[in-house]
Write a structure and sequence with these properties.
Elements (H helix, E strand, L loop, with lengths): L2 H23 L5 H7 L4 H29 L2 H19 L4 H29 L5 H30 L2 H21 L14 H12 L2 H31 L4 H25 L5 H24 L5 H27 L6 H25 L6 H28 L15
Subcellular location: Cell membrane
Family: Belongs to the major facilitator superfamily. Bcr/CmlA family.
Membrane topology: Multi-pass membrane protein
Length: about 400
């Protein structure tokens, strides 16, 4: 693979990975406007975010088997086309119920991009490079929250929240063209792969039974829930509690994303000296400490706008180390079933994240305490899962390395 081909693949896979974050973040500044136009509350509007997460979780279980059966690109074309239609429909929603349903459909379609991008990393790159490639994708994903809410704030202020969904439809169209012309088919169709429920469930069960998968996929998913809790709670936190406007909110969101980007790139450098297993446990301990400071400070009213931003910034820095290593370690044991494994990993992440946002909506009390509580709890539970899972892996002698020459071997 030449340098030019390598960069091209990373960019296209990055845009596929970025479609989900754009779909999540770009309309966040419009929450108050949507609530006003659809005659509801910001807490009710946040349920459209929860339905999106549920849709991604369910959809990835659908696209995983499809991509193992028909190859990566054909299901991806269908998903991107459906996403465009659903996005346009969201722009013309006349009730919060309709928006919630349409966001679910939009999510189901968008997760074709999420599944394909993760599976193609496993298909196209050597296993020892997976963690580094995921870190590069995190750079692209990290830029998305910097751009999306900032652009969304200006678009909402100038043209209304409906325009955001029309822009998302256009974005999907551009990505579809790039995939068609610039992305190779990384997995040949497998006619022997059955799409009947029993064989599919059997393959998923094979993935789930792998200790390294369930340890790092679940630990990473619970940690990731802290990020989704922040995303869901940030409109209330910044625009209602701290009274910033749509444009200011976009810039705050962009600044906070720098933490995620910077840490993910530092992670690539640290992988030259440390193993993924070492990095992830250190990051989770730090994440728990920062989450606890945020929770206690919020409960007792010790944190203002800037100190709150500082705590969230550091929390996201920890996630920049946790996510790429958890992803690489989860997929390391798999070759043939990489599509099913990536789908299960993504479904776990978004399913747990959806649960976190629903909990946040239920306990919403017009304060930042529920958001901070979910963030701190996610770090604690994630660390406990990791410690227990590592004991099981060590006891069974089933450790798959991801960042040395012995990658893929069982130690």
């Amino acid at each position: 693979m030449t340098r030019k081909e390598y960069v091209s693949l990373i960019l296209i896979l990055g845009t596929l990975t970025a479609l989900g974050p754009f779909s999540i973040d770009m309309y966040l500044p419009g929450f108050p406007a949507i609530a006003k136009d659809l005659r509801t509350t910001v807490a009710e509007v946040s349920l459209s975010l929860s339905s999106f997460f549920i849709g991604i979780s369910a959809g990835q279980l659908l696209y995983g088997p499809l991509m193992d059966r028909f190859g990566r690109k054909r299901p991806l074309y269908i998903g991107l086309a459906g996403y465009m239609v659903a996005s346009v429909a969201c722009a013309f929603a006349t009730s919060i119920e309709a928006l919630i349903v349409l966001r679910f459909i939009q999510a189901v379609c968008s997760c074709a991009a999420a599944v394909a991008s993760v599976a193609m990393v496993r298909d196209l790159f050597p296993i020892e490079d997976n963690a580094k490639v995921f870190s590069l994708l995190m750079l692209v994903v990290g830029v998305s929250p910097m751009i999306a809410p900032t652009v969304g704030g200006y678009v909402t202020a100038g043209f209304g929240w409906e325009a955001v969904f029309l822009i998302l439809a256009g974005m999907a169209a551009v990505i579809l063209v790039a995939v068609y012309f610039g992305l190779p088919e990384s997995s040949k169709p497998d006619p022997s792969y059955s799409l009947k429920p029993r064989p599919i469930l059997s393959k998923f069960l094979m993935v789930i039974k792998e200790p390294q998968f369930y340890t790092y996929a679940l630990s990473g998913a619970v940690s990731f829930a802290g990020l989704l809790a922040y995303v869901s709670g940030s409109p209330l936190l910044f625009m209602e509690i701290f009274q910033v406007n749509e444009k200011e909110y976009g810039w705050i969101f962009a600044f906070l994303s720098i933490g995620l980007i910077s840490a993910s790139q530092v992670n690539s450098i640290m992988l030259r000296r440390y193993r993924s297993e070492q990095i992830i446990i250190t990051a989770l301990v730090c994440q728990l400490f920062i989450g606890s400071v945020l929770l206690v400070g919020t409960m007792f009213g010790w944190l203002g706008l800037f100190s709150t931003i500082a705590c969230i910034f550091l929390f996201l820095c920890c996630l920049g180390f946790t996510f790429p290593n958890a992803s690489a370690l989860s997929l390391a044991p798999f070759t043939k079933n990489a599509g099913s494994a990536s789908a299960l990993m993504g479904a776990t992440q978004m399913g747990v994240g959806a649960l976190a946002t629903v909990i946040l909506s239920i306990f919403s009390n017009h304060s930042a305490v529920p958001m901070a509580g979910v963030m701190a709890a996610s770090a604690l539970i994630s660390l406990l899962i990791l410690l227990l899972g590592q004991k099981i892996i060590k006891a069974r002698g089933l450790q798959y390395e991801v960042n040395n020459s012995a990658a893929g071997a069982i130690h």
